[in-house]
Amino acid sequence: MVSDSMGSDTRNRRERMYAPDPVVTMITTILLLLLALLVSFPFLWMLRTSLMPETEALKFPPNWIPSSINLTNYMKALTVQPFARYIANSLLVALLTVFGQLLFSSMGAYAFSRLHFPGRDKIFLLYLATMMIPFQVTLVPLFVMISRVRWVDTYAALIVPGLASAYFTFLLRQFFLTIPTELEDAARIDGAGYFRTFVTIILPLSTAALASCGLLAFMQNWTSFLWPLIVIRTREFRTVPLGLIALRQEQGYIDFPQLMAGSAMAILPIMLVFILLQRYFVSGIAMTGLKG
After folding, report:
1. Domains and CATH numbers, the chain
2. Span 33-50, mean pLDDT?
3. What's the rounded Cα separation, in Å, for the pair 83 and 107?
4. What's the pLDDT score for residue 7?
5. 284 versus 66: which is more confidently predicted?
6. Which residue in 161, 163, 190 sits closest to 106, CA to CA?
């Protein structure tokens, strides 16, 4: 009984010692709320402008809250340009590219983390060194290759060059190194080969890392502008960033509410994907960044 009471007193003292100060907690919460408001202000301003007529959006001093909810700008953005087609193109390109990047990056990461072959570490360092080469350096030779195979103004030109990623290979390799090797040893005892081990052991345990890499890859491909601008010539294959430029340029003037409506529709898929994968994204980034 005495020992139990002493242990209880010790725990209570520790809890009081490490309990957060209410004043510090309140100040921290207020600062975080102000920071969140500051960060979200451009997004809120975009939504506000997209719901206003042009005369009200350009008024100074500005009206912070729209006088009425007006969805006309969204309808105009969908009719002046085939914006629905642009969104479909971006979804197709982003999803196929993400699938390819996750497939090839996970296979490469498995080889670099689990297989043993001559020069493995040197090849991996050489592969990582490609991350130091700016994309602008490879832009011209890549375009020459695409034009030689007649892929200019096609979906293949948007998808195939981005199917491999040294960055995601590195992240997945770091995560694969944290998986206990005893699981693979047990699979080999059961007669599993490398491919079966990869599919049945490694991939199911790497859901968080794959989700975080998939989200990053989706955002990267959804917002890609320079490469589509170079290889796409017609409306049929335009992606969302090119569609936003078309909203701005082809009308001869800038309709800011209509442009903000297009921007809001462009951001919506990224927000939905992040909301769905947020839990996996945070845990995946934490594990790939702190272990290995």
Report:
1. 2-50 (no CATH), 75-290 (1.10.3720.10)
2. 87
3. 36
4. 53
5. 66
6. 163
- pLDDT tens across 47-88, in order? 888 888 877 777 777 777 777 777 888 888 888 888 889 999
In this prediction the pTM is 0.79
- The dihedrals phi and psi of 259, each to the nearest 5 degrees, come to -65, -40
DSSP codes of every residue in 104-172: HHHHHHHHHHH---TTHHHHHHHHHHGGGS-HHHHHHHHHHHHHHTT-TTSHHHHHGGGS--HHHHHHH
Checking 42-48 for CB contacts under 8 A at 24+ apart, the result is 43/267, 46/260, 46/263, 46/264, 46/267, 47/260, 47/264
Quote the pLDDT of residue 289: 47
Task: Name the amino acid, one letter, at 178.
Answer: T
What pLDDT score does 266 carry? Answer: 87
Q: Which residue has the tokens 């569609």?
A: 243
Is the distance from CB of 97 to CB of 159 less than 8 angstroms?
A: yes
The DSSP code for 201 is I
Place of tokens 């997004």: 43
Cα 73 to Cα 50: distance, rounded to the nearest angstrom: 6
- Residue matched to tokens 């959804």: 222
Residue 2: predicted pLDDT = 46
Residue 76 CA to residue 62 CA, distance in Å, equals 23
What pLDDT is recorded for position 141? 92
In one-letter notation, the amino acid at residue 225 is F
The pLDDT assigned to 143 comes to: 93
Nearest one of 165, 174, 57, 65 to 112, comparing CA atoms: 174
Task: Enter the tokens of residue 49.
Answer: 């402008």
Alpha-carbon distance of 110 to 274, in angstroms, equals 26
